[in-house]
Amino acid sequence: MKEFALKTALDNVRATCPLVHNITNYVTVNDCANALLAIGGSPIMSDEPKDVADITSICGGLVLNIGTLNKRSIKGMHVAASRAAELSHPIVLDPVGAGASTLRTQTAAELLDKYPIAVIRANMSEAKALAGGAATTRGVDVCPDDAVTEDNLAESAAFARSLAAQTGAVVAITGAIDLIANAECAYAIRNGSPVMGKITGAGCMLTCVCAAYAVANKDSLLEAMVAAVVGMGLAGEMAAARMTPQDGNGSFRTYLLDALYNLNGDTLEAGAKVEEL
How large is the C-alpha radius of gyration of the chain? Predict the structure, then answer.
């Protein structure tokens, strides 16, 4: 990694309070807004086609999350993405469930083809669907056959670099082991907690967090995505460590937001489990 401290990425977010326009999953929209507020960003949610161009114009970045698609939201995504491209705002694509249905796969592919997507945040099954190589999916979850493991880490990193080269985006493939890649290099991140898979929205929240980091660190996008993913993973670890035997996933969800809110640069640097591949 070039000379860039992970804490700098978080400090830049806290210092600039990036305003992010989110066209995101109805199931997780509240958590996404709260996650952005917790890290020091500011959220706006709108998917109405007649509204989104104006909203995107006053923001610094755009999230396109296809988790709960409908005709109106798809049109809104295209209108907002076109405006964001005109303004050179970073666009973060979350192709939720790509490969599970024709509509999801085609919508994600069209957005990727038509607009300068800066970051793709996906699980491995979704990423393979974007690349045209997914055979099966499990709805919005990664197919077990696609999961990144220690045994297939080198192969998975090569795929992530290839997808980044193909799309021009920084690729963040998240799971038990996270991969962050551009066309030249890739990093593995081993932060996180299994309990993050027991709540809905951890991935959607991370996508919005990535957008805030992208807005605040435009000149160091790869490193900023490493910092964003490490930060979410650390927050998951801290939330899990706080749980008592009486706590469940509802408590974890609250603790996760608390951990994001209290995360600082020194903790981020000290707890990062990052390997260059």
Answer: 17
Residue closest to 61 by CA, chosen among 38, 42, 79: 42
| 184 Cβ neighbours under 8 A, 6+ residues apart | 161
CA 82 to chain centre: 20
Q: Are 260 and 202 in contact (CB under 8 A)?
A: no
In this structure, the strands spanning 117-122 and 42-45 are unpaired
φ, ψ (nearest 5 deg) of residue 8: -60, -40
For residue 204, which of 65, 101, 102 has the smallest C-alpha distance? 65
Model pTM?
A: 0.93
Q: Which amino acid is at 215?
A: V
Beta partners for residue 93, in sequence order: 64, 120
Which ranges of the chain does DSSP label H, i.e. alpha helix? 6-16, 29-39, 49-58, 71-86, 102-114, 124-130, 153-167, 202-216, 221-242, 249-262, 265-271
Closest Cα partner for 173 from 142, 197, 150? 142
| DSSP three-state, residue 210 | helix
Average pLDDT for consecutive 10-residue bins of the chain (277 residues)? 78 97 95 97 96 97 96 96 98 93 92 96 93 57 69 92 95 95 96 94 96 97 97 97 96 97 95 94
Instruction: Yes or no: say if 127 and 173 are a contact pair by the CB < 8 Å rule.
Output: yes
Short-list 25, 86, 28, CA closest to 53: 86
Residue 138 forms beta bridges with which residues? 141
Query: In angstroms, what CA-CA distances link 138 with 43, 48, 151?
Result: 30, 29, 22
